[in-house]
């Protein structure tokens, strides 16, 4: 790799660390500032932060790779994601922003689950925190795998060293600046990702004389490519579209809605966020499609389909631009890892340590403990990521399903069902998580395959969790008047703030 590319990357790393130092001085004096940025995050930063932390390395590596391997089948995933993100902005964002403040200023998702029922240290809080740490450790490892593959493919750096470099930079600015650093770096990273996912497919397409030539090369490379969209089975279509269900339960995304400065800022964030998402997701799919044609037309050797974006960056651009595009991949990876580390650390400190500790802990000490939590989760994820054969998209899909099934139905029930009970919430979380884990790991089919080989695990997990929440609420004793009044107050305040 030319020296100019390394200089571009060095500038990027220094910029991220500089933002971390700035945020350290601005917002980490108390736990609310460290975890939620004092609930004063702008809609622009909220939108790009939510998008960048959502899409991660799989946007520039996993999704183009899926398009390269499966053809237009990958488009159903994109459709499901866009629909799910829009529904999240419409159904969850405004009400969650108000309700978490009404529920005794809840700072984390597990804390909201407990205070929604008028309790501070309910079992649902600890159980949900444990699930967050467990699935985010898996999710973070997916980002590290992407970082390791990037350094190995682009810079001939040993895979394990790539993991360490990626993790080192992310942990540094996350430890320093907390939520504000994560959000501000996500904003910058979201802008970089946007430019990269517009630039790469356009430049790659311009290597062909016409769209017809490109399509012919792609069809020659993958027979039946243009029929794959219509030939997909209904089970496959539903499984792909079901990715959209996961949005309601992703703590690293919905926590952005808790931190936005006001309900009136949500529509602005939605418009910016959805516009950003549409452009970037089309760019990712286009990168994979053009990659199919380019590899056939120009004899490009593609050993790992998930590195097609990296290959384009290396062969089509000046070294300075190539370094910028490598930074785009790191931006996608780091934005998600930092968000996941922060949410995990918040759960470890606020929802496990503070709940179980018999001592009073001041905010400053809690922030310090949170930083230790960031380091602990990072090390565990690093150990999981040491196997370079892991598929980025596979790791992400498992963690996405776990959160979507365990928390997605509960978030909606908390916001829209007045008579939801605490026992139902606890049962719903456990039912969703256990169903997903069973679907992924239990070799119950005749050939030793798991049920996830038939249908994406988020579907049965989401359905089982929803039924459990509904049935247990019907059978359980109705919540007391104080809990009902909190629900009414949140609804009234939302109506007032939207007017």
From TrEMBL:
<keyword id="KW-0472">Membrane</keyword>
<feature type="transmembrane region" description="Helical">
    <location>
        <begin position="6"/>
        <end position="24"/>
    </location>
</feature>
<dbReference type="GO" id="GO:0015193">
    <property type="term" value="F:L-proline transmembrane transporter activity"/>
</dbReference>
<feature type="transmembrane region" description="Helical">
    <location>
        <begin position="276"/>
        <end position="295"/>
    </location>
</feature>
<dbReference type="GO" id="GO:0031402">
    <property type="term" value="F:sodium ion binding"/>
</dbReference>
<keyword id="KW-1133">Transmembrane helix</keyword>
<feature type="transmembrane region" description="Helical">
    <location>
        <begin position="231"/>
        <end position="255"/>
    </location>
</feature>
<keyword id="KW-0029">Amino-acid transport</keyword>
<dbReference type="Pfam" id="PF00474">
    <property type="entry name" value="SSF"/>
</dbReference>
<protein>
    <recommendedName>
        <fullName>Sodium/proline symporter</fullName>
    </recommendedName>
</protein>
<feature type="transmembrane region" description="Helical">
    <location>
        <begin position="454"/>
        <end position="475"/>
    </location>
</feature>
<feature type="transmembrane region" description="Helical">
    <location>
        <begin position="423"/>
        <end position="442"/>
    </location>
</feature>
<feature type="transmembrane region" description="Helical">
    <location>
        <begin position="187"/>
        <end position="205"/>
    </location>
</feature>
<keyword id="KW-0813">Transport</keyword>
<dbReference type="InterPro" id="IPR011851">
    <property type="entry name" value="Na/Pro_symporter"/>
</dbReference>
<keyword id="KW-1003">Cell membrane</keyword>
<keyword id="KW-0769">Symport</keyword>
<dbReference type="InterPro" id="IPR001734">
    <property type="entry name" value="Na/solute_symporter"/>
</dbReference>
<feature type="transmembrane region" description="Helical">
    <location>
        <begin position="159"/>
        <end position="180"/>
    </location>
</feature>
<feature type="transmembrane region" description="Helical">
    <location>
        <begin position="126"/>
        <end position="147"/>
    </location>
</feature>
<keyword id="KW-0739">Sodium transport</keyword>
<feature type="transmembrane region" description="Helical">
    <location>
        <begin position="307"/>
        <end position="333"/>
    </location>
</feature>
<dbReference type="InterPro" id="IPR050277">
    <property type="entry name" value="Sodium:Solute_Symporter"/>
</dbReference>
<keyword id="KW-0406">Ion transport</keyword>
<dbReference type="GO" id="GO:0005886">
    <property type="term" value="C:plasma membrane"/>
</dbReference>
<dbReference type="GO" id="GO:0015824">
    <property type="term" value="P:proline transport"/>
</dbReference>
<feature type="transmembrane region" description="Helical">
    <location>
        <begin position="392"/>
        <end position="416"/>
    </location>
</feature>
<comment type="function">
    <text>Catalyzes the sodium-dependent uptake of extracellular L-proline.</text>
</comment>
<keyword id="KW-0997">Cell inner membrane</keyword>
<comment type="similarity">
    <text>Belongs to the sodium:solute symporter (SSF) (TC 2.A.21) family.</text>
</comment>
<dbReference type="GO" id="GO:0005298">
    <property type="term" value="F:proline:sodium symporter activity"/>
</dbReference>
<dbReference type="InterPro" id="IPR038377">
    <property type="entry name" value="Na/Glc_symporter_sf"/>
</dbReference>
<keyword id="KW-0812">Transmembrane</keyword>
<feature type="transmembrane region" description="Helical">
    <location>
        <begin position="369"/>
        <end position="386"/>
    </location>
</feature>
<keyword id="KW-0915">Sodium</keyword>
<feature type="transmembrane region" description="Helical">
    <location>
        <begin position="74"/>
        <end position="92"/>
    </location>
</feature>
């Amino acid at each position: 790799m030319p020296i100019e590319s390394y200089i571009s990357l060095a500038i990027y790393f220094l910029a991220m660390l500089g933002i971390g130092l700035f945020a350290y001085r601005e917002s980490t004096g108390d736990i609310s500032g460290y975890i939620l940025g004092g609930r004063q995050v702008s809609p622009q930063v909220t939108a790009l932060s939510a998008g960048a932390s959502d899409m991660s390395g799989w946007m520039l590596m996993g999704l183009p790779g899926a398009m390269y391997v499966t053809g237009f089948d990958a488009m159903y995933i994109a459709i499901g994601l866009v629909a799910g993100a829009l529904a999240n902005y419409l159904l969850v964002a405004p009400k969650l922003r108000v309700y978490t403040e009404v529920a005794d200023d809840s700072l984390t998702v597990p804390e909201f689950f407990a205070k929604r029922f008028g309790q501070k240290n309910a079992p649902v809080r600890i159980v949900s925190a444990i699930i967050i740490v467990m699935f985010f450790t898996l999710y973070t490892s997916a980002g590290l795998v992407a970082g390791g593959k990037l350094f190995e493919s682009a810079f001939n750096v040993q895979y394990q060293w790539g993991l360490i470099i990626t993790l080192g930079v992310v942990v540094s600015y996350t430890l320093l600046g907390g939520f504000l650093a994560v959000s501000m770096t996500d904003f910058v990273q979201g802008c970089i990702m946007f430019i990269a996912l517009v630039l790469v497919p356009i430049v790659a397409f311009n290597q062909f004389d016409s769209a017809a030539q490109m399509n012919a090369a792609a069809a020659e490379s993958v027979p039946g490519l243009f029929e794959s969209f219509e030939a997909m089975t209904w089970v496959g279509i539903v499984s792909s579209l079901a990715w959209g269900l996961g949005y309601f339960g992703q703590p690293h995304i919905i926590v952005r809605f808790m931190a936005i400065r006001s309900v009136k800022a949500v529509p602005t964030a939605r418009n910016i966020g959805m516009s950003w998402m549409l452009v970037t997701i089309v760019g990712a799919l286009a990168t994979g499609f053009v990659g199919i044609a380019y590899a056939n037309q120009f004899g490009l050797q593609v050993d790992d389909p998930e590195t097609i974006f990296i290959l384009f960056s290396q062969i089509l651009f000046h070294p300075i631009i190539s370094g910028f595009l490598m930074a785009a991949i790191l931006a996608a990876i780091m934005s998600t890892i930092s968000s996941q580390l922060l949410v995990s650390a918040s759960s470890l400190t606020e929802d496990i340590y503070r709940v179980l500790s018999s001592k009073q802990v001041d905010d400053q000490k809690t922030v310090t403990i949170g930083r230790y939590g960031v380091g602990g989760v990072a090390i565990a994820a690093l150990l999981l990521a040491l196997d370079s054969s892991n598929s980025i998209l596979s790791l992400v899909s498992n963690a996405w399903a776990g959160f979507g099934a365990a928390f997605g139905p509960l978030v909606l029930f908390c916001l829209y069902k007045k008579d939801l009970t605490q026992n139902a919430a606890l049962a719903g979380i456990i039912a969703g998580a256990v169903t997903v884990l069973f679907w992924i790991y239990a070799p119950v089919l005749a050939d030793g395959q798991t049920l996830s080989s038939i249908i994406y695990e988020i579907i049965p997990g989401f359905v089982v969790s929803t039924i459990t929440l509904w049935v247990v609420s019907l059978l359980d004793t109705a919540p007391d008047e104080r809990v009902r009044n909190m629900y009414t107050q949140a609804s009234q305040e939302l109506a007032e703030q939207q007017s």
